[in-house]
Amino acid sequence: MDDPSTQAFLLAALTAGGGITGYARTRSIPSIAAGVTVGALYGLGGLRIRNRQAYGLEFALAASVLLAGSSFPRAVKTMKPLPIGLSVVAAFGLYRFGMLWRAQV
How confident is the model at residue 3, as a pLDDT? Predict the structure, then answer.
């Protein structure tokens, strides 16, 4: 589980699955659009990391920044479990991929 590509794929599944679940429960188009978009960024990052291609960490880090930018303010404002959980996922991604990117530069 220490492999960053596996972690990116796990975050892709969590975010895309969450977006699909949000759509299924509330018919919210923004939920599915955001979840699938962030999940696709994590998935693309994971593929590029696994294949040792350029910009894999950057894609995963960008997905984390995007997710953090949308979830942190909502978590602070509403204190509801879903935004808090998304914030935890984003914080993990920011830390993990940020540290790997920093070591690479």
Answer: 93
